[in-house]
């Protein structure tokens, strides 16, 4: 069993490069189903979730080769066939459900087991199914499976009750070959949505307005292959920004897009961290007094829920009272109990956490309960007095490329051990 072991108290210094965004790469890989040709993804992050989605496509007949030295993925879907993907693979990761949209578009039918992933909330798929139904598919749910059939998908106007990222992506891909126009209103505006649209358009799709709250898809007959380099991971960038803040350090983070991390920059600036953006680099200087703040997670361009846990670790060691309100997922405070093991003073009331700052964390044995919780515990360990051992680190590996190696290169006393 892997564990990440951290001896806290070291200052960070140097430069760290952000990898490509997992939440962008996964739907892009899935959307290659629509091409029926060869697609190349450059600078792909070599993560466990990427391996799972690749294996899922392979189980349907896609031929995929991965070059880990160049971080290049070659996807050939010319031999893709209709089939039911492995339930074991689908239950490993919620993003596997994104296969449904393009498979319905390509074959007119699809059956898949209900998805798994981090246990951070119910994250219902009803908005996905609402979209498929609006496009003319007959959808049935039962016995742990979802099945959809359609002789021909027809463009329609679809209003999402909530700007769900997954539903926006799935409906967008399902509508690529639909007759006429599809309009998704109250769509998610995340940068990853825009990146998916760029990939689809480079294959010959007509997707207009991605990145806004209204997306139009004009149906086309077919798509061709393409080459694409995904956007950087704004959550990984934010995690290293928080790492600099919690250790009161000064570091340079490269490979960033300032527009994508504006909500994180704004909140860290409010805390008192100094930041200077130079092109695709940001200098983060937290060697100063920092103050508590209140945070409320919101859909993009609001403060990202995927940064809530990491920021909570930082707020725990800032003198005074901070309040964190989680509006996206109802079960995303599982890291609180683990932070309390390290001395945090946090009280939970529904979806609100009240944090009274402590002087410092104490090293302890803790468990990563989900991906971002694991990142939060690493940050806490960096700032703790003594040694912190984090178990269940497979959660962390789902979203961070060699996080211990990158932090070690910045001066952290951190390593992965096998027990």
Automatic annotation (TrEMBL):
It comes from the Bacteria. It comes from Candidatus Clostridium stratigraminis. Residues 7-407 form the Enolpyruvate transferase domain. The keyword tRNA processing does not apply. The gene is murA. This is UDP-N-acetylglucosamine 1-carboxyvinyltransferase. The active site is at residue 118. It holds the Pfam family EPSP_synthase. Keywords: Cell cycle, Cell division, Cell shape, Cell wall biogenesis/degradation, Cytoplasm, Peptidoglycan synthesis, Pyruvate, Transferase. It is found in: Cytoplasm. Cell wall formation. Adds enolpyruvyl to UDP-N-acetylglucosamine. Its EC number is 2.5.1.7.
